[in-house]
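#onboarding

Welcome to the new folks! Below is a worked example of what a typical request in this channel looks like: someone posts a single protein sequence, and someone else replies with the predicted structure as tokens. Don't worry about understanding the tokens yet, we'll cover that in week two.

Example request:
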Amino acid sequence: MALVILLAEWRLRGAAASGLLGGAFGGILGIFAALLVTLVVSRSAAPEPAKFPLEFSALFAFGYLGVVLGWQKGGELPLHLETVGKLFGGRTEARESLKLLDTSVLIDGRIADICDAQFIDGPLVVPQFVLRELQLVADSSDGLKRQRGRRGLDVLERIQKMPGVEVRVLEHDPSHVGEVDHKLVELARQTGAKIVTNDFNLNKVATVQGLSVLNVNQLANALKPVVLPGEPMRVFILREGKEANQGVAYLDDGTMVVVDGARRFINKNVDTIVTSVHQTTAGKMIFGRMDERAEQTGSMARQAAAGASRNEGGGRAADPSPLDHGPRPIFPETDSD
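Example response:
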């Protein structure tokens, strides 16, 4: 009996509060169902020695079944209670919208700016296993990984110092799951929280399992300005493109702009006309061509400026007469007139 108690205590030590509440509620319902079965058995015509095993088996079976089902469905219990309260016209308090922060979103750093702009409400939850992963990355022998890990810790410290932003460190660790992504998914399922990440694979896995995900990359793509075909745009050509005679530029938000005919204008600002916009998994890409009218106007302006610079000298050097066709011949001096 002592071993059973110690095993139960070790198993329940890292359990979530919703699981414990659901297990207790399910156990009570199981015992109540076993009581009904016991009443039926006690009123039957079976002999007394045969009734006790049936009553004990019913109590054990229904109690165990209620605890297990209540534990598994504990995360959905507040949602069901809120739905029942709405059906009867009662008022229920709004459930806290927890946000689980992933390691990648802390290393990325844009979550701090989003919190500073107050676009995220509710408590931000950082699991203990995420902090351990950040510490391992910060202690890595690789210089780049070490810098990324320290950046994640600095971002978390910055968020904690923001007024009006609540950050919680959760000690719960689903030890039966191995990887950090799987632990986040399991923790989100148990607590009903939303996962904040910019990891594409984690986003897909959580979405397939019916969990809510806040992807920072999707938010950044949604906030990019809308560009329509035919609109003029002035960009700075940084490098040549993959195709012949193409130039590549980038907008301030990181959107790639591919311009046909701009290969010779590398490291220069050019006027372009947007031809098409494509949405890819990596983001938005804009394709355009050189604006011929702006290019002609610019060349005429450059020619006018060059002509003006030649005329700045003035006098005969700047405006030679028709008779001045070159240097005059030099004749030798003689004594005769």
